[in-house]
Design goal:
Layout: H1 2-13, E1 17-18, E2 21-22, E3 55-56, E4 59-60, H2 73-84, E5 91-94, E6 97-100, H3 101-107, E7 112-114, H4 130-135, E8 142-147, E9 150-156, H5 158-166, E10 171-177, H6 183-189
Parallel strand pairs: 8-10
Antiparallel strand pairs: 1-2, 3-4, 5-6, 7-10, 8-9
Length: about 190
């Protein structure tokens, strides 16, 4: 029981680090520090499971059967499935309000082709995993929030934009006109 208590309290402290950044979603400076993850932007913590391993959107990354540096067959299979579905569970949460990517797409425009450089200035300025960029599927449209007729933020598709720019390819875009969406959308994405 003592081992569980110690592990549990350690998780509660949230003193986990990434590189040289310490702290939670507010970082040391109190502002957003960003990590390129549109699921929970700015959160630099690496949540660890009290049962071992690191927690991800798809669950633990390793189990007790995994050896040092090598994953067991079950974990490799699970990781493959999770990597194929990255982004499908994208959502935004603020208190009791949750908006899913599916909700956003209900209000977004039809897909149209655009030059990805149009959105370059809206990219979050962070380093990105080159493997994730290479795996980005350009057949899926990005989603861009628009306010007052001007694009204001990329809601989904940062890695796809980087890949499209890298390969000099047009990108499919769906626009979410924040002036004509429910109030909770406007509050979430303002």
């Amino acid at each position: 029981m003592n081992k569980f208590k110690n592990k549990f309290l350690k998780c509660l402290e949230e003193d986990m680090t990434v590189g040289n950044v310490v702290g939670g979603s507010e970082g040391l400076e109190g502002g957003s520090v960003g990590n390129g993850d549109t699921w929970n932007t700015g959160d630099q913590r690496i949540p660890s499971s009290i049962f071992g391993g690191v927690l991800t959107r798809g669950g633990k990354t390793k189990c007790k059967k995994c050896k040092k540096g090598k994953k067991c067959k079950a974990c490799r299979e699970k990781e493959k499935v999770v990597s194929e579905n990255v982004g499908a569970d994208t959502n935004w949460v603020d208190g009791d309000v949750e908006i899913t990517l599916k909700d956003v797409l209900r209000y977004a425009s039809r897909s149209q082709k655009e030059d990805p450089r149009t959105f370059e200035k809206l990219l979050i300025n962070v380093s990105r995993d080159p493997n994730r960029i290479d795996r980005a599927d350009l057949s899926y449209p990005i989603v861009v929030g628009v306010k007052g007729g001007k694009p204001t933020k990329i809601l989904d598709g940062q890695h796809r934009i980087v890949k499209a720019i890298k390969h000099n390819q047009p990108i499919h875009v769906r626009y979410l006109d924040l002036d004509n969406t429910p109030e909770h959308f406007q509050q979430m994405f303002n």
